[in-house]
Amino acid sequence: MSGLITRRGLLAGISALGAGAALSACGAKTGSDTSKAAGAKADTSGSTVRVGLLNSLSGTMAISEVTVHNALLLAVKEINAAGGVLGKQLKPVSQDGASDWPTFAEKAQALITDSKVVATFGCWTSASRKAVKPVFERNKSLLFYPVQYEGLEQSPYIFYSGATTNQQIVPALDYLKKQGLTKLYLVGSDYVFPRTANKIIKTYAKANGMEVLGEDYAPLGSTEFATIVNKVRSAGADAVFNTLNGDSNVAFFKEYKSAGLTAKKLPVLSVSIAEEEVKSIGTQYLEGQLTAWNYYQTTPGAANEKFVAAYQAAYGKDKPTSDPMEAAYISVHLWKAMVEKAGSFDVEKVKAASDGITFDAPEGKVTVDGATQHVHKTARIGKVTANGLIEEVWNSGGPIKPDPYLKGYDWAADL
User: Fold this and answer.
1) Which residues, including other chains, have CB under 8 Å from residue 137's CB and lie 6 or more apart?
2) How many angstroms separate the CA atoms of 116 and 44, rounded?
3) Whole-angstrom distance between the N-terminal and C-terminal Cα of the chain?
4) Rounded to whole angstroms, how far apart are CA atoms 98 and 25?
5) Cα(216)–Cα(193) distance, rounded to whole angstroms?
6) What is the pLDDT of residue 137?
7) Which of 192, 255, 288, 325 could form a disulfide with 126 if both were Cys (CB 3.0 to 4.6 A apart)?
8) DSSP structure string for 236-290
9) DSSP conformational letter for 377
10) Per-residue pLDDT, 11
11) pLDDT given for residue 8 in this prediction
């Protein structure tokens, strides 16, 4: 229970004071160990090098993050089987963030200082990323973050292999607008990603002839959605834009169906529900609902067929793949390519070598933008089918250059 209280306290800080307050709080939490943090160096002296895997293996976010952890392990296994990186085998060191943001910061420091990892792969929620960001920056150590997020961020020590705002949220809004779904109700978890995403959505709506009829948040892990669903049902919206995370989605969609709401009557477009969550929530609650991602298990191509086959061979034929899993998987391969181009594990040399690195990913060819340390990605809208998979109904036609601060959009100038 104490972890929940800690988490809610931090979330309240984010809601009241913004991301800057959250960073200050996280800095206070981890800053007590600055003597250990100063000058932490990765160990590359032996025949193996350690890589950190930092995911929630317990708590409310485990529903999503365990499979990301598995995808990271698969990438490490593949790289080792192909000879490793610069002739060295990778040794994964796993830490459990336990769905608690101060814990993420503590575990990140342990990976850097105690395990002396050459790079870390992980985090899911923006709250966890905000918590560890000062740790990686202070130590000048690399984090590869695999999940779509709200944008408006850039760190010299974070590579973002998931989508930023103009590669997911903006295309999703464009799609809804094109479908004539212009009256939106916003439902999200109460932390930085949904609140920032919804600020962007409201700014987009105002400039694009759309209307936001309501906006509600629930604590991460919340299972009580009767009040919110009743408000959604009576609002007169055309669609719901859903930024709930973790197992709160289970309770929300069960309540949604219980209230008589369906994809046909009032579609929900979700940006944090992928194939693994569909399986956990239940197809009967999600059939016909929309999602916005950059990859689906059904995405065509030889690279994806290979990825799906390898993942299911390792973890079970009934195990689906998903966008965050794929983005995590490619992040390890992208890091490998950067290191080999640099000819070194040195962080600064790896960063300098990053621009233009490409990988034939399951989602299609991806390219690293060295200036922002984000990745060019194709936007995709999908619909949940009766078999629990997600079928693409629209895509952007090719990779979109990352624009984390939305500098290319006049309507976003004040964000």
Assistant:
1) 155, 156, 157
2) 9
3) 36
4) 18
5) 14
6) 98
7) 192
8) T-SEEEEE--TTHHHHHHHHHHHTT--TTTS-EEESS--HHHHHHH-HHHHTT-E
9) B
10) 37
11) 35
Token pair of 134, please?
């000062």
**Residue 351 structure tokens:** 């960063």
Q: Quick check: 157 and 188 in contact, CB under 8 A?
A: no
* 19-30 and 192-207 helices, crossing angle to 10°: 160
User: What Å distances lie between residue 125 and 12, 70, 115, 135, 147, CA to CA?
Assistant: 15, 17, 24, 16, 8
Q: Which two tokens stand for residue 22?
A: 């959250």
How far apart are alpha carbons 237 and 232 in whole angstroms?
7
Residue whose token pair is 């292999």: 161
What would the pLDDT profile of 76-105 be if each residue is shown by its tens digit?
Answer: 999 999 999 999 999 999 999 999 999 999
Q: State how beta strands 143-145 and 158-160 pair.
A: parallel
Residue 176 CA to residue 268 CA, distance in Å, equals 10
Strands 239-243 and 268-270 turn out to be: parallel
Q: What does each C-alpha distance from 211 to 35, 64, 184, 189, 240 come to in angstroms?
A: 51, 31, 6, 21, 12
Q: Where are the beta strands (DSSP E) in 56-177?
A: 89-96, 120-122, 143-145, 158-160
Instruction: For strands 380-384 and 374-376, give the pairing.
Output: unpaired
pLDDT value at position 192?
93
Amino acid 30: pLDDT = 35
* Residues 6+ away with beta carbon under 8 Å from 179: none
How far is Cα 234 from Cα 183, in angstroms, rounded to an integer? Answer: 13
Distance between CA atoms of 411 and 203, rounded to whole angstroms?
7
Weakly modelled stretches of the chain, pLDDT under 50: 1-38
